[in-house]
Amino acid sequence: EAGVAQSPRYKIIEKRQSVAFWCNPISGHATLYWYQQILGQGPKLLIQFQNNGVVDDSQLPKDRFSAERLKGVDSTLKIQPAKLEDSAVYLCASTWGRGALNTIYFGEGSWLTVV
Amino acid sequence: GEDVEQSLFLSVREGDSSVINCTYTDSSSTYLYWYKQEPGAGLQLLTYIFSNMDMKQDQRLTVLLNKKDKHLSLRIADTQTGDSAIYFCAEKAGNNRKLIWGLGTSLAVNP
Lengths: 115, 111
Description:
The complex is a heterodimer of chains A (115) and B (111). Chain A has strands spanning 5-7, 10-13, 19-24, 31-37, 44-50, 53-56, 65-68, 75-79, 88-95, 105-106, 110-114. With 115 residues, chain A is mostly beta strands. In chain A, the strands form 2 sheets. In chain A, strands 2, 4, 5, 6, 9, 10 and 11 form a 7-stranded mixed sheet that branches. A 4-stranded antiparallel sheet of chain A has the order 1-3-8-7, with no helix packed on it. In chain A, strand 5 and strand 6 (53-56) form a beta hairpin. Chain A starts with a strand and ends with a strand. Chain B is an all-beta fold. Chain B is 0% helix and 59% strand. In chain B, the strands form 2 sheets. In chain B, strands 2, 4, 5, 9, 10 and 11 form a 6-stranded mixed sheet that branches. A 5-stranded antiparallel sheet of chain B has the order 1-3-8-7-6, with no helix packed on it. In chain B, a hairpin with a 2-residue loop joins strand 6 and strand 7. Chain B is globular. Classes of the chains: A mainly beta (115), B mainly beta (111). Chain A binds chain B through residues 4, 40-45, 48, 55-56, 91, 93, 98, 100-101, 103-109, and chain B through 4, 30-31, 40-45, 48, 88, 90, 92, 96-99, 101-104.
């Protein structure tokens, strides 16, 4: 079974530039998450989708971050304009449903460095 | 509020047992999880425990839950160099049932 795919794996941009990350969840997984993980910290949930609807985006900095999941499958996360403090790993994850026992599968992450 | 705390570092010798501890604050937690993150990789679910259980064993892994003290531990028996990674404790809590994460414990296994 293919895992959660993310691209690009690595990106270096200058501050004030924009960047977009792409995620393809495991086939059939209705719930998709984007997490931000800053070095030395645990993951922080940015946004959760159920199919193509947003369930939770309370911690998404909406002035610069946006995410969409058109057609309820792939998702993109965009940062515009980027700040130095956005340097982090952006993890996409998916699960079949929202129940507690549904295992959340993570991609390998997209590593962003803002200089 | 919701909070999960872990010690940041643990160093053990190969073949010894490792015990990674975690405390949480939300008494309404339903499930508690242990995730493993190897360098440059995503998060891998190792095991989980339901809040009405006090122990769960899965091969070399033993999870102990003390609900009264809100304390969770992960014991890895016969620790190998391949177990070197960061281990995250997470709880599913709150009305929206989102995962609350600890900062991770970095496990170093010395030959």
